[in-house]
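Exercise 7. Given the components listed, write out the predicted structure of the assembled complex. Treat all entries as one system.
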Amino acid sequence: MDGDPAAFKTLFRAAINHVYWLAYNIVKNKQMAEDIVQEVFLKIYQMREQIDPYRSLHFLIMKMTTNLAIDQIRKTSRENWGPYLDETEDISDSEAADEITLTQQITLQQGLYDLPVIYRSVLLLKYTYDFSYQQIAEILGISVPAVALRIKRGKEMLRLKLKDPVDEKS
Amino acid sequence: MHCDVKPEALYRLVDRELPPSEALRIEGHLKGCPKCQSLYERLLVENRNLIRSLKVKPLDEYEIRSLEKRLLLHIDPPCSS
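Answer.
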């Protein structure tokens, strides 16, 4: 990139959909997601001389996006930060989903949208971006076993939502 | 058949997160354990469903241009659009 405006625009075009999608699905707010897009790319531009060309720029951008989005939630206290479940609780195996229809895909997306951010973020990083547990642990600053546990718990919560998509919370 | 495989290991197997030797051991176990085999198959389907459902939805060109324009205003030296 090296300060080359054309290269920066190419990078922006290549990454914008990923950055916006991840930010939006974490903060659940269009304006905030757009602000995060702005901040991520400005930071990348400002630190362009320091970026290690041998490390994945995609990983760096997704890491910055995730953490800026989670910081936004922390700052604005827009949702309950804590986990739904005690992470020491033993959960028996509930049934995993069968192949789903388009309608169920939308239900699943909505279910993800309603999960606490600690589960939403790991599921997005794993199943949208195919990051390894190790990479997700590095992005979120948590241990690999914690990533594995959040993925399992997140899936369990989603299954409950798929079985009862009209579940109304009081 | 005695089953010593925890569900957590099957979650890691479908996510390709087990060391190769452990993955081989569990794959061998699946052949003789219908309960684990059943859970494994359901977890595979679930992963496919998640990947299919959580794909990135692209922004439209208008939205991209709008975000690009806003960003370029803050870049120094300015990038021509």
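Discussion: Residues 13 and 27 of chain B are 9 Å apart (CA to CA). The helical segments of chain B are 7-14, 20-32, 34-53, 61-72.
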